[in-house]
Amino acid sequence: MTKSVDYYCFLSSPWTYLGSARLYEIAARHGATIAHRPVDLAKIFPVSGGLPLAKRAIQRQRYRMAELQRWRDFLDVPLTLEPKYFPVDTIPASQLVVAADTLGHDPGPLAHAILRAVWAEERDIADPATLTAIADAAGFDGKALITASADDDVRHRFDAFTQEAIDRDVFGSPTYIVNGDLFWGQDRLDFVDRALAAA
User: Fold this and answer.
1) Sequence-separated (6 or more) residues with CB below 8 Å from residue 175
2) What pLDDT is stored for residue 148 in this prediction?
3) Which of 85, 92, 135, 156 could be a cystine partner for 140, CB 3.0 to 4.6 Å?
4) Number of independent structural domains in the chain
5) CATH number, residue 80
6) CA–CA separation, 117 vs 92, rounded Å?
7) Where are the alpha helices (DSSP H) in 31-179?
8) Could you give the dihedral angle defined by the CA atoms of residues 19, 44, 127 and 69, in that order, rounded to the nearest 10 degrees?
9) Is residue 21 helix, strand or coil?
10) Range of the domain at 178
11) What is the pLDDT of residues 57-108, one digit of tens each?
12) pLDDT tens per residue, range 128-158
């Protein structure tokens, strides 16, 4: 039986970025495939009780910042706590990742490069030229992906992933589903590891 992880990701989430490299390492160790499902949290939050960062209580915002620093230091991952281009429109980047998958490529390197671009490199992932350069550097044909990402089928797949996430009780990013079990947050990756080991 093939081991797999359904990976619901919001491509400007710092928590998704912090867990990204570890997810790929865990999956590779278990011979598991990753089904990338970029989602639009702006559509998920209203039906799941979530709030955009700016609307959260100041106590939660302060604690978020403290936790980001703790995890950045603990994992030794480069991360700018307040990057220049955040918040940012993630739809162009999300559709780029969906396009890569639709064309039969492994979208993992691209998804990780986009997250790194926001949080370590302070680049604008809403800008087509920036996305083209990120894709090229990750080993893709950036121009071809940009063109493909504008296709109606790609847009519909992205919308379908978001609705699928809502239907499966996803409420935040990153969310990993293994054998029907949902794990929310990069700090649950140890449980993902165990679930794959048991699969």
Assistant:
1) 7, 8, 9, 165, 182, 183, 184
2) 98
3) 135
4) 1
5) 3.40.30.10
6) 14
7) 41-48, 58-75, 91-102, 108-119, 128-137, 142-149, 152-167
8) -40
9) helix
10) 4-198
11) 999 999 999 999 999 999 999 999 999 999 999 999 999 999 999 999 999 9
12) 999 999 999 999 999 999 999 999 999 999 9
Tokens of 194: 């165990």
The amino acid occupying position 180 is G
Give the tens place of pLDDT for each residue, 15-56: 999 999 999 999 999 999 999 999 999 999 999 999 999 999
Residue 127 CA to residue 68 CA, distance in Å, equals: 26
User: Which residue pairs from 23-30 have beta carbons closer than 8 angstroms and sit at least 24 positions apart in sequence?
Assistant: 23/174, 23/176, 23/186, 23/189, 23/192, 24/108, 24/112, 26/189, 26/192, 26/193, 26/196, 27/196, 29/193, 30/3, 30/193, 30/196, 30/197, 30/199
Residues facing 182 on adjacent strands: 177
- Amino acid at position 65, single letter: M
